Amino acid sequence: MRKALLLLAVSLPAVSTAQIPPDVSEFSLSNGIPVISRTVANNEIEGVSLFIIGGSSALSEQTQGLERFALECAVMGSEDYPGPVWRDLMDRTQAQWTSSFNYDYSRYHLKCISEDLAQLLVAFGDCLLNPELDPQALEQVRISTVQDLQDKRTDPDSWVWLVANDAFMPGHTYRKLPDGTEETVSSFTEDDVRTMLDIRIRAGSLLITHAGPTAPEELREILEAAFGDIPAGGQEYPPVGPFTVDADTLVIQQREVPTAYVVVKFNAPPQGHPDLLPFRMALTVIDDLLWQVLRTDNALTYATYAGATTYRENWGYMYVSTPEPARACSLMAGVLRGMIDDPVDGGLVEGTIEKSLTRMRLTAASKADQCWMMGSYQISTGDWRNAFTEVENASGITSEELSAVLERWIGNGGWGIIADTTSVNPDRLRPWPLN
Questions:
Q1: How far apart are CA 102 and CA 177, in angstroms?
Q2: Are 393 and 19 contacting, i.e. CB atoms less than 8 angstroms apart?
Q3: Are 230 and 202 in contact (CB under 8 A)?
């Protein structure tokens, strides 16, 4: 096994340099934390992201959500920046912190003006290494986190994705929830928080990305002052294994809802596989076809879409909300099978690729999104440049190639449905074959 960052690196085909942004520097801090910085001097706004690599791999059934809880508690204040001082700093600088927690990593992102960057990052580093962990602050985080989880559970549009996980990934690493459960979050103690921070805030588990006007040498000094005392080392994690769905599976959750919510997940190529890009393009084409068939032709939904993930191990998915789930799911599976059996019009493929290019360019206009793109692709593919070149490499993909890649990878599906089975006949709900 290798250290976390190296573990995630994979061998990819050589990438085109045409779309790689200029003025990107790579360096490491004295303790080994890698940094990817893009100098963007169009204004005085800075973007900095800290990635903690591991995600679900760093959790057990009992510690689901502990990393999120520990980090959120840590950023409530530190020894040198106790709660009132930290909050005053946030108010004075108008800095914006955002966080996200997924199957592969946790991420904190800072948006601020250049003159405040050094102090804000020093304060953040002190929170990670020397958190205050005021008991009232811990309970505030716990209450807020449990409320978030309850809101997600009561919202069928959000919860159906986890119902599909029950069907698609039982026993898999990604089945452990980075956000946790109401039961696990309610049980965490201050000692649990300190232990998790001690294990996870290690140089070998971290990655920093930056987009903004601060030049690399000045940025190195700022980051060294903020994060240079983080200990070296880091946990080792085994590779994320593939999903094994032995048969088409359906999990139904009964709720009194006016419309049914459906998600189906199925295997996709892992990061680094040459089939992954055409597979994603194929699912983007299917996204357009689902709207045409389910909404325009049959008036069964106002919301349907399809896509594929960007994790170390990936899946494809299709979603629909509809008052007629049996009919809608049958059509949805038929769209996928139809594209495998009969390649779509080449003009639709060209249009899909062009739309994907436009979306990528719009995303890259934001410094926060640039930090996310560089970091997430470095983690999942081993090379941040793939964030900017992947879609361009889709040029020339044919509709026949899209059909072939779907045929190679589409197997059994894991279906999750939330529906009112008093009004929807459950006997008509079954796992619909995808291939």
A1: 8
A2: no
A3: yes
Residue span of the structural domain in which 85 resides: 18-227
Beta-carbon contacts of residue 272 (< 8 Å; ≥ 6 apart)? 10, 11, 12, 381, 382
Residues 248 and 413 sit within 8 Å (Cβ to Cβ): yes
From first to last of its 435 residues, the chain has per-residue pLDDT tens of: 233 333 333 333 334 444 788 899 999 999 999 999 999 988 999 999 999 999 999 999 999 999 999 999 999 999 999 999 999 999 999 999 999 999 999 999 999 999 999 999 999 999 999 999 999 999 999 999 999 999 999 999 999 999 999 999 999 999 999 999 999 999 999 999 999 999 999 999 999 999 999 999 999 999 999 999 999 999 888 889 999 988 999 999 999 999 999 999 999 999 889 899 899 999 999 999 999 999 999 999 999 999 999 899 999 999 999 999 999 999 999 999 999 999 888 888 888 878 877 777 776 678 999 999 999 999 988 999 988 887 677 778 889 999 999 999 999 999 999 999 999 998 999 999 998
Residues 41 and 86 in one domain: yes
Residue 168: closest CA among 279, 266, 252, 60 = 266
Token pair for residue 227?
A: 């994060």
Relative orientation angle of helices 276-290 and 325-341, to the nearest 10 degrees = 130
Same domain, 60 and 133: yes
Query: What tokens appear for 51 in the block?
Result: 């990635």
In a domain, 89, yes or no: yes
Can you give the CATH number for the domain in which 197 is found?
3.30.830.10
The Cα–Cα gap between 138 and 236 comes to 29
> Are 167 and 274 members of one domain?
no
Question: Which amino acid is present at 107?
Answer: R
* Total structural domains within the chain: 2
On whether both 208 and 254 belong to a single domain, the answer is no
**Which residues does 402 contact at the CB level (< 8 Å), separation at least 6?**
278, 281, 282, 285, 339, 343, 344, 349
What's the predicted TM-score (pTM) here? 0.90
Same domain? 107 vs 188: yes
Going by C-alpha positions, the residue among 414, 408, 406 that lies closest to residue 246 is: 414
What's the DSSP call for residue 364? T
What is the rounded distance in angstroms from the CA atom of residue 104 to the CA atom of residue 380? 8
CA distance 98 to 109: 5
The answer to whether residue 172 sits within a structural domain is yes
Last residue of a domain, one of 227, 257, 285: 227
Q: Where are the alpha helices (DSSP H) in 66-134?
A: 66-74, 83-93, 117-129
Does the residue 161 lie in any domain?
Answer: yes
